[in-house]
Amino acid sequence: MVRGPGGVVLERVLDDVGDVNVFFRVRAAPLDGGWEPVSGWARASGRERLAAEVHRVRGQLGALAGGGAEDVEWRVGASLFHQGLASRMLSPVLAAALCHGAGLRADLLAYQPGRSGPLALGTAQTRAVVLGEDVAAVAAWLEETVVEGVLARVEEALTGLGRISPGLLRGNTGSALAGAARALGAARRDRRADAEAVVRALLERPCLAGTGSYTGVDGAGRATLRRTTCCLYYRVPGGGLCGDCALRRSPGAR
User: DSSP 3-state assignment of 215?
Assistant: First the structure.
């Protein structure tokens, strides 16, 4: 990592954290006219773009079962679009902060509406503010820039487009955060404890309170989350229950 008077050089940070998995990858380069800010979905002028993203996800899910968008309920497509977006935003912001003390700004993340593949994010941000390296500072940054920032506004826009529970969407955010911490901890073992501590801190704050909690550890010693809501993936043709789903029975339950 390189720091200077203008903060952390972000390109090198994103090159590093992007190695974790695809959800941590953000293109760091000047963005051409084919990119638009993710935050634009929250504006009235961006609702058509947001609706198109939900329709795209419905089509992708329907195709997996040999059908089309019409075979996937709107609220299911909206939920799974949101969960994917939450993962792609929280993962790099968490990793940049924990691994490099760099404040990646969610409000500057952008996407390509005319793409042919899955959602990918980029940013024209070149330098990042230097965050405190403690868990509290990282949790505060995630809350400000992602959870109560861009994602909260996108959630509000989605509930304005169709019938979907705000609590379900916020549950998706908690699940995505825990998933990001799990992936980061698996790839960077020295950051596992801090990543899980960030999740615990945010699950105790009003922004994510009641969305879920850590209930134990798996065979590799990684914390396991049980959420209090369901992302609705089970309603996709051929779908099932996710590992942290509230609809799963607890071990030993009848």
Answer: strand
Residue-wise burial string across 188-200, b where 16 or more C-beta atoms lie within 10 A, e elsewhere: beebbebbbbbbe
- Residues 106 and 100 sit within 8 Å (Cβ to Cβ): no
Strand order in 121-123's β-sheet? 26-28, 121-123, 109-111, 36-37
The Cα–Cα gap between 91 and 96 comes to 9
And the tokens for 172? 């998706």
Query: How many other CB atoms are there within 10 angstroms of residue 175's CB atom?
Result: 25
Q: What is the mean pLDDT of each run of 10 residues along the chain (254 residues)?
A: 70 95 90 88 94 96 94 98 98 97 95 90 93 91 98 97 97 98 96 98 97 94 95 94 86 32
* Confidence (pLDDT) at 1: 55
- H/E stretch holding 156 reads helix 151-161
Strand partners, 8: 3, 128
Query: What angle (nearest 5°) sits at the alpha carbon of residue 74, between those of residues 23 and 156?
Result: 70
Quote the CA–CA distance of 94 and 103 in Å, as a whole number. Answer: 9
Instruction: Compute the C-alpha angle 127/129/135, nearest 5°.
Output: 130
Residue 94 near residue 142 (C-beta atoms within 8 A): yes
Q: Which whole-number Å values give the CA distances from 197 to 70, 88, 194, 222, in the listed order?
A: 41, 20, 5, 12
